[in-house]
Design goal:
alpha/beta, three-stranded antiparallel beta sheet, globular, 15 helices, 2 domains, 376 residues, eight-stranded parallel beta sheet
């Protein structure tokens, strides 16, 4: 067994995913290291924040530096310096979200133009499996078709059909030693198509399952309604992964509906735009009202930025002077916040107190950040 459920509270679950490079405690947020690194941070810093697993991007790593280089240098773990579990996505989201680069899709695979040099490239299920085998990730995702929410039902239906066809070809493809493989269900928020996709993907011997094609432009309430019945439709004995979700409210809500894993660039990207995530919402540190504010980003926070004695005024100064240290401090803080939120949810599930934990977190976020201007 690669997954064990240790506690439940309603539909919410706390468990452990066992991989070749260690255990992943769930619910688990996965920081995104698109090109082999979480931007501005060292691997040991990411681990110290509480991350068990990071995500790498097959599309970008395939083009730069290439799986041949990474394999020759000992695989993704040795190449990047991250010793814990790594999940690699298939590259399908990049191909289908960059629709201007898409050339053709057929039952065998997808043809597109590289965002790096415009060259014509092709991905197939077997090809994606081989790239990830050579990368040596712990969890490899299947190639799927991820359309935006506003396409026609026919396009969603074709996405379901081809994703199933490709999954059937990829499930038994050669993989790295100990590598787990997850299948992905599509179907948007259409109940018939989503159920059809879940049934088809769940019939195959994958080590875990993902809900793809959500958080891609649909209404949030509609998305959560879909997760509410779709996540429990997967087998209970394997992990469930929501692809591309990272805001605090969303994390809490999908955990409540039975999701075990999730990833998103939101915490790190928000940091690079100059904002801090806190229990009472976002703080835009570029705002002039923080120019003389001696307080930490968040009172009581134990992250390296807050615990290190760095003030809001100093972080704002760094941002305005385009110093990389400002982006680093905000990235450290935002990942700490997100990972602590997830760890708190795990603890609450184990104590049978998740509903109260979720309600308290939502109430704090709804209150909003304090608006007073600091007067020294």
């Amino acid at each position: 067994m690669s997954f064990v459920v240790e506690a439940t509270d309603g539909a919410a679950r706390a468990g452990i995913v066992r991989t070749a490079h260690g255990e992943i405690r769930t619910p688990a947020f996965m920081p995104v290291g698109t090109k082999g690194t979480v931007k501005t941070l060292l691997p040991e810093e990411v681990a110290a924040l509480g991350a068990d697993v990071v995500l790498g991007n097959t599309y970008h790593l395939h083009f730069r530096p290439g799986e041949d280089v990474i394999e020759a240098l000992g695989g993704l773990h040795a190449f990047t310096g991250w010793s814990g579990p790594i999940l690699t996505d298939s590259g399908g989201f990049q191909v289908f979200s960059l629709r201007d680069t898409l050339a053709a899709v057929d039952d065998d695979g997808v043809t597109f133009r590289s965002v790096y040099d415009g060259s014509l490239e092709r991905l197939t299920p077997e090809g994606v499996a081989e790239i990830q085998r050579r990368l040596g990730s712990d969890i490899a995702m299947c190639l799927d078709i991820c359309p935006p929410a506003n396409v026609s039902r026919h396009e969603h239906e074709e996405a379901v059909r081809r994703t199933q066809l490709w999954a059937e070809r990829q499930v038994d493809a050669p993989r790295a030693e100990g590598q787990l493989r997850f299948g992905i269900a599509q179907g948007g928020t259409d109940p018939d198509l989503r159920r059809r996709s879940i049934e088809g993907i769940a019939s195959l011997p994958f080590d875990g399952f993902a809900l793809g094609g959500l958080a891609v432009g649909e209404n949030r309430e509609e998305m959560l309604d879909t997760v509410g019945w779709a996540a429990p439709a997967f087998p209970d004995d394997r992990p469930r992964y929501f692809m591309g979700l990272g805001d605090a409210e969303g994390i809490l809500e999908v955990i409540a509906r039975g999701v075990d894993m999730f990833d998103c660039v939101l915490p790190t990207r928000t940091a690079r735009t100059g904002s801090a995530l806190t229990a009472r919402g976002r703080l835009n540190l570029r705002n002039a009202r923080f120019a003389r504010d001696p307080r930490p980003l968040e009172e009581g926070c134990g992250c390296p930025a807050c615990g290190g004695g760095f003030s809001r005024a100093f972080v704002r100064h760094l941002l305005n002077q385009q110093e990389i240290s400002g982006l680093r401090l905000l990235t450290l803080h935002n990942l700490w916040f997100t990972l602590r939120l997830t760890a708190g949810a795990r603890d609450a599930i184990s104590r049978g107190a998740f509903d109260a934990y979720r309600a308290d977190a939502h109430a704090s976020l709804a209150a909003g950040p304090e608006e007073e201007t600091w007067q020294p």
